[in-house]
Amino acid sequence: MKLRYILMAVCCMMVVSGLVTPAHTQIISGKDWTHQPGEGIEVELLGAGMGSKYGVEHNPVTLTIANPENVVSIIAQVVAIETTAGQPPRVTFSSPQESFTLTTPSGTTTEDERYYEAVFKPTNRITAQVLDIGFSPHSYTPRAFYLYVFRQTGVSQFVTGALIHESVYAKSLTPWASDPYTAVFPIPTASSPRDIQVSFVISDLQSDCRIVDIEAEAGEIRHQETFSYSYLNDQPAVVTNEALVVTRTLRNVPGEVQQVTMKVISPWDQARLCEADGDGKKNDCGDSVTISGFNVVVLGKRVDCVVSEWGAWSECSAACGGGVQTLTREIVVFPEHGGAECPALSESQACNEQKCEEDVSITKMQKTEDSDWTTDPLSVTWGEAISYMLTITNTFETAVDLMIGDALSSLVEYVGGLTATVDGTDVTLIGDIFEGWGFSGLGADETLSITFDVVVKDKDSVAAGSRIENTAWIYIDGDTEKHVSKPVISNVVPEPATMFLFGIGLFGGLALLRRRRNR
Questions:
Q1: For residue range 423-438, what is the model confidence (pLDDT) as tens digits?
Q2: CATH ID of 360-492, from 3.10.180.10, 3.30.70.60, 2.60.40.740, 2.40.10.270
Q3: CB-based contacts of 11: which residues, under 8 Å, 6+ apart?
Q4: pTM of whole model > 0.70?
Q5: Where does the chain cross the membrane (predicted)?
């Protein structure tokens, strides 16, 4: 394999046998970075496609940076490709606070690729635009726009990475046994397993059959993935417009592992997926990919969640009618760096589901003009007024909301006279006798009294001897299951006494006449 390594004046990258070794701690364009846990730095990679050698698709392009308040520095990078011989174009970078115009590239990756870089102060968005496109003698088109966002997070983790400007030429790799481009990043050891995030930044994938394999390895923990611009075996594309930013996590990496190896390959043998030319040969569509950067984050010691033992069941929330009691436990050790999440911290179950019979009691009394309040039946006659009193006492430990009603007999007519008091204090009810009266917040041990008047209908509507029965009812807290009803006292409309006496006299006179005839 023939790889073209370019020593960049601003990069000072050391390349030994294809291995890239980070050696710098500064956040400087084109250099490697290494941040120790105490520095609390993380790197976010953002990217967007701009086009390819076949044309410009997006220019200018704006990338948005979330939470700029904890950003330390940002490296902006544009990769451009030469379409025909000519001079490289100018590139502008701009944010709401700064702007740069680069008339010459920051560096060269191959004969036909150039990259432009600028370092920005914290901001919320950066726009990149390639100028002079299509105007002689400038004959370059943009491929991709990337941001390397350095953040101060305070999280104790090890971060290392590098901007790498190299192309892997698929055509120069040995078919069926292509060697990868390899970068090795040293990481500190630890006393226990930890998770490691790895990121790849790659461009120049816009070709019908262009394919790239990425691989990350830390000890025996390995991740491998294949990306393509177009379709592979009828699978849809996963890369568009030249830009590929991939972040994956290697989980449970043993603490003794001292390095992360990252590989990129654009295998020429994959070109077998291309349709053959008329002579049966493969199309020349493997071409090259550009590796723009790597990033490695050691998330720190993997800590699993630890919880306490279950405590005792709480008291039931209700003495009857259905309550809930809860079992709880606490977090002893919070999870960190990809550790196992905490299980449920509470469980609940139903309790005291028996019906509440006496927690809200209802009593009904009645009186006429000639009687006192009583729970006993009364004899009433046509047109006579009857006063009813509903007395509701709350023996719950908390206040309740009530809906109270009285199912009046069809033999009486409601005539008003409504009053309501709570422990002797006048209150206002919502609603009416027909739909029910509502009252909110009857406190513990408080008594609500409701009085109203009815009149017995006339004798054309009520036959003598009729029994008048009403039923009072209550719904508690809107729950139909918590329903209390009491059969109300029966009132009787008796036969008139005059009719009874007339009957006795008539019967006695007839008997006397019979006796006289028999003599």
A1: 999 999 998 888 889 9
A2: 2.60.40.740
A3: 30, 31, 107, 163, 165
A4: no
A5: 496-513
